[in-house]
Every structure is written in structure tokens, then in C-alpha cells.
Amino acid sequence: MKTLARIFFIIVLFAFQNAFSNAKHQQVKSEAEKVAETTLKKQILKEASWAMQQKPVTVTASFSPRSAGGKHDFFSEADYFWPDPQDPDAPYINRDGLTNPDNFVEHRKAMIRFSKIIGALASAYKITGDKKYVAQAVIHLKAWFIDPKTLMNPSLWYAQAVHGKFTGRNYGIIDTIHLMEVAQGVLVVEASGAMDPQTTEGIKNWFAAYTNWLMTSKPGIQEKLTKNNHSTCWAMQVASFAKLCNNVAVLDSIRVLYKTVLLPNQMGTDGSFPLEIARTKPYGYSIFNLDAMATLCQILSTPQDNLWNFETMDGKSIKKGITYLYPFVANKSKWTLKPDVMYWDNWPVAQPFLLFGANAYNENNWLVTWQKLDHQPAVEEVIRNLPIRHPLIWL
């Protein structure tokens, strides 16, 4: 009888634990989140199945002889710089908006792949509660942030180098926007309780170190002070990484930056971004910067300080930005400015500002448009400028 009672107790305990685990995944969902899950579930599970088969590939898997750094340093070359046709041995020259296909981009590709893997696994865990996805994510997280043989240094001294001019530039900091879904994915899977404390601490220590580098290094400070999408993306990254590390002071400082610098200085009174419109790819850059600002609002908003509701004295707000651009995303033929010099036909895709905005303002038209657009872009340039590819983990 004692044996039967013990077995019965174990069964009841197991059932209770399962019920508790499932309850944690049955939180109250907004309409936008329900629609997003329904729209993306099949895709998420397919991507997660792929991710379960992948082995880690970090920056140590490839190296460029043109890099001034070591094998643990991220390296990339500036996209819009080309050999001088008058002198092939001279420093490269800028051709704004035109991507040089011969640049070294292997580290960027590895980071994007890493982001896809963690984003897919975290999304699958969120909708299923299956901890096998957490276990697989941990393998990749350890490789990038903890294993001394394969980790990436928490700095970006050698990103977007220019042959003959710079071994690295502050503009290269934009390359690590693809670590944001990694950080957000960690927040999601951490709640599973399946990550050991040492691993969690190691990952957060890496992001804390990188956040410190972004805020204190010369390139980091330079990037913060740029006036266009680069400063928005600097802030977006710092906010994302600080949220993972629960750095309240940094989060507060980025909220202030958004209210006093980014939004008022970058947005026109009509909701456009004049500095992005002035580029050779005004459509793509307008979308990109709006995505970044909307993501900032998604990361930073709290019940006490909701950036979705913030408006400057002269009427600038994230809602005005979405309202301005939305008609051109819903119907690109309405765009009245010059078309982009490259990738004009590849935008828009399922832009996160549509989903996040629909969630914040209950705007069904934005949500429907988001549903209809491409959720699996394959063009590298589009992927490079789309850091939020797994929006479910952000809702």
C-alpha cells in the first residue's frame, strides 16, 4: 500500500508541475499577440526544427586577413565603399546606398544566423513550453558568450572597416542590432528555469560588458551622437541589452534620450524622418528608422512611462511616425519621393512597427497589413536591416 501511495503521490505531483508550467504559458494575450501567434506558429515550429539541428558558428569560424583584430573580434567592412576605379591601390571610396558584394561579411552572417536560431528557439519555447528548445539555445549561447575557445569579444573595434582608411568605425556598431533578439530570447527562455545560474550569469556578464563598451568607448560615444538611424540603433541596442541585465539606470537614461534627442531631432512635424529621406534609399531607410524607434518604445515602455503615448511640445510622436509612413507601406505606389537606388522592389516586408503599433493602439488596419506582408524575406540586405524577425518574443 505504501508503494501504491508513493506512486500516486508522484503522479499527482508530476501533473501539478505540468499544470503549473502550462499556466505560465497561458498568460493573458492581446489581440495583436493572438494574431501574431496564429500567423507565425507554423513558421516558428519549422524554423525551430531547423534550429534544433544546427551547431554553433561564431566569429572564430572565419577570419579575414584584412582585419586588424584577433580571431575573437567581430570584423566587417563598410557596405558602401568600393575600390577607386582610377587607382585600385588607393583607399576605397564611398558610393552611398550601393553595396559592395566583395566585402567581408562572414561574421555578420554568423551573427544573423545566431539571431535566427535563438529567435526561433525562444519563439517555439514561448508557444509550446517545451524545454528542449531551451537546451538547444544554451549550446549556442555558451559558444558565443562563455566558451573561451569560441566566444566573441564584447566590443566592436573592427566593424565596418574601410580599406586604406579605417581599421574600424563607429558606424559598424549597427551590425550588432542582430544581438537584440538573442538578448530578448534569453529573457524568454530564462523564465523556463531550465538554464543553470552559471550560464545565465555568464551571458548577462557578456552583455553588461558590451553595454559598457557601447556607452564608454570612443566609437560607442560617436555612434550615440550621430543624427540619424545610427543613433536610434545605438539606443535600441543599449536598451535591449540593459533590459536583459536589469540595468534600471541605463534604461532610464535611454528613455530620456528618446524623449529629448532622438524623437524631437529626427522626426519632422509631419511624422517623416528628413535625414533618412535625404539618403539614396529614402524609402528603405525611413522604414528602418521607424522600426528602430518603434522597437525602442516596445522595449522601454512601462505602465508608469509609456513611450507609445509620449508626444513632444510640437506634436511629434511615434504614432505620428507610423501614421505618416503607413499609407506608403500599405501601397508603395503612393510613395511620392524618388525610389531607392537599390532593393526598391524588396521593401516592405512584415515590418515590426506595424505589429508593435497595432498592439499599442489597437489599430486593426496596421495589423492586417502586417499579416499580409512577407514574414520570411530571403534577400540579405533586407535581413540585415530587419533585426526583429521573431516579433512574438517581444510581445
TrEMBL record:
Presence of the UniProt keyword Nucleotide-binding in the record: no
Species for this entry: Mucilaginibacter frigoritolerans
GO MF, one example: lyase activity
Keyword Cell inner membrane annotated: no
Descriptive protein name: Alginate lyase
Record key words, sorted: Lyase, Signal
Signal sequence range: 1-21
Domain Alginate lyase per the UniProt entry, residue ranges: 59-335
Coiled-coil regions listed: none
GO terms under cellular component: periplasmic space
Pfam family, one: Alginate_lyase
Gene3D superfamilies recorded: Chondroitin AC/alginate lyase (1.50.10.100)
